[in-house]
Design a protein that fits this description.
The chain is an all-alpha fold. The chain has 17 helices and no strands. The protein is globular and about 55 Å long.
C-alpha cells in the first residue's frame, strides 16, 4: 500500500465505498421491508407477488455480473458507478407512480441491470485494487455504510409512509439515494492509485505473472462449488428473514414504529458486526469469520421463532441478524482472493457474487409464499435455521479442506 503525506488514500476510497453501499444497499435494499404491507394493502397485491420485485432486481443483476466482471477488468469502475447510481436512484421515484404489478416488475428489472454498479462487485473490485494488508477491515468499513444509512432511514421512511403514504416514501429514498451517491462517487472514489503504481491486481510478483487461478480452473475446483453453495444458502436465509421482518413483527402485534426501531437496531448492530467480522477475518482467518456470520443467521432465525411467545426476543434478533448480514459483501470478496488469487479476480468474484445473488433472489419470495399459504412465517423461520446450519458446514468445510491442502503442499 502506498501512502501520501502519511495517509493512505485507499482509506478515502473505502469511505466513499461505505457511502455507496449505504445508498445502494442500505436504502434501495434494506428499506424495502417498510413497503411490503402498505403497498400490498393499498394495491391488493399478495406479499409473495410483491416480493418478486426484489427477486427480479436480484436475478437480473445476477445475470449481469459476468458482464460487469469483464467490464471492470479494462474500464473505469468510477464512471460506471456514476451512471448506475443515476439509474438506481430514479427507480424508486418510478415506483411511486406505479399502480400495477407489471409496472413494479419492469422498474425492478431496470434496476437489476445497473445495481451491480453500486453494490458488492464494484465495491469489492475497488477494495481489492487498493488493499493488500487489512483487506478484511477495509471491506468491513466499506460494507458497514449500509447499516449506518439503513439505521437512520428505516424509521424515517416508516414515518413518512405513515404520514404521507407509500409513494412519498419511495420518493424520499430515491432523492436521498441520489444525494448520497453522486457526490461520494465524484469526490471520494478512485479507480486505482494515482502515484504511478498500477492497480493492485495488475502488478505481477517477481519472476512471473499475477498468481492465482483462471476462471476455468476455479470452475473445476471443488472449493469453488462448496463456497458457492454456502454463500447461496446464507444469502437465501439473510434476505428471506430480512425483507419480511417488519411484516412479521407487526403481525405479532408490534406497532409499525416499534418494528422499524427493531430494524434500525439491527442496522446499528450490522455496523459493528461488519467491522468486527472484517477484523476477525484479518486476525484469525476466514474460518472464524464464516462461523460468526452463519451462526448469526441461525440464532437470528431462532430469535424470530422465540418472539412469537416472548416479544423481547426481537432485540436478540436485531443483534444476531447484524452478524448474519455480513454475508452480503465481505465473504465473496475475501473468499475470491483467498482461494483463487488475483489472476482473474473480477471474473471469479462475479461468479461467486452470482451464487450470492441467486440465494438473495430466492429468499424473499419463498418466505412470502410460506406466509401466503400457511398464514404464518414460523415454518419459514424453522427452515431458515436449518439452512443456516448447512451454510455453516459448507463454508467452514471449504476453509478446513483448503487449510489441509496448504499443509500438504508445505
Amino acid at each position: 500500500m502506498r501512502k501520501s503525506g502519511g495517509f493512505y488514500a485507499g482509506w478515502k476510497v473505502a469511505a466513499g465505498c461505505a457511502v455507496v453501499t449505504g445508498a445502494g444497499v442500505g436504502l434501495f435494499s434494506n428499506c424495502i421491508g417498510v413497503f411490503v404491507k402498505p403497498v400490498c394493502e393499498a394495491l391488493s397485491f399478495s406479499r409473495a407477488a410483491f416480493s418478486l420485485c426484489s427477486t427480479l432486481t436480484i436475478l437480473v443483476g445476477a445475470f449481469t455480473l459476468p458482464f460487469y466482471g469483464e467490464w471492470f477488468r479494462k474500464r473505469s469502475v468510477k464512471w460506471t458507478m456514476l451512471f448506475c447510481a443515476a439509474v438506481c436512484g430514479a427507480v424508486p421515484v418510478g415506483y411511486s407512480f406505479s399502480s400495477q404489478l407489471w409496472q413494479f416488475y419492469l422498474l425492478a428489472s431496470v434496476n437489476g441491470l445497473t445495481v451491480s454498479g453500486i453494490t458488492m462487485l464494484s465495491v469489492g473490485t475497488l477494495i481489492n485494487r487498493w488493499f493488500e494488508g487489512k483487506k478484511g477491515l477495509a471491506l468491513g468499513l466499506s460494507y458497514a455504510g449500509s447499516g449506518v444509512v439503513a439505521s437512520i432511514m428505516i424509521p424515517v421512511t416508516e414515518q413518512v409512509v405513515a404520514a404521507f403514504g407509500w409513494a412519498w416514501g419511495y420518493r424520499l429514498i430515491g432523492g436521498v439515494g441520489l444525494g448520497l451517491l453522486i457526490p461520494s462517487i465524484l469526490f471520494l472514489v478512485q479507480d486505482g492509485p494515482k502515484d504511478g503504481a498500477e492497480p493492485k491486481q495488475k502488478r505481477a510478483p517477481k519472476g512471473g505473472e499475477t498468481q492465482g487461478m483462471t476462471r476455468a480452473e476455479a470452475l473445476r475446483a471443488p472449493v469453488f462449488w462448496c463456497v458457492s453453495a454456502g454463500l447461496f444458502l446464507a444469502n437465501l436465509v439473510n434476505l428471506g428473514m430480512f425483507n419480511h421482518t417488519i411484516p412479521y413483527l407487526t403481525d405479532l402485534g408490534l406497532d409499525p414504529p416499534l418494528a422499524s426501531k427493531v430494524m434500525a437496531a439491527a442496522m446499528i448492530a450490522m455496523i459493528g458486526a461488519k467491522l468486527a467480522v472484517g477484523w476477525m477475518v484479518d486476525r484469525f482467518g476466514i474460518l472464524w469469520g464464516s462461523a460468526a456470520m452463519a451462526g448469526g443467521l441461525g440464532l437470528a432465525a431462532a430469535a424470530l421463532i422465540a418472539a412469537a411467545a416472548f416479544s423481547p426476543a426481537v432485540w436478540a434478533y436485531a443483534v444476531m441478524i447484524g452478524f448474519g448480514a455480513t454475508v452480503n459483501g465481505i465473504f465473496a470478496s475475501y473468499d475470491t482472493a483467498r482461494y483463487f488469487g488475483e489472476r482473474e479476480y473480477p471474473r471469479i468474484f462475479a461468479l461467486l457474487s452470482m451464487a450470492s445473488s441467486f440465494g438473495s433472489a430466492a429468499g424473499a419470495p419463498i418466505a412470502g409464499a410460506v406466509f401466503d399459504r400457511m398464514e404464518t412465517y414460523l415454518p419459514a423461520w424453522w427452515g431458515a435455521a436449518s439452512l443456516a446450519a448447512g451454510a455453516l458446514l459448507l463454508l467452514c468445510g471449504a476453509e478446513l479442506r483448503w487449510g489441509k491442502r496448504d499443509e500438504e503442499k508445505a
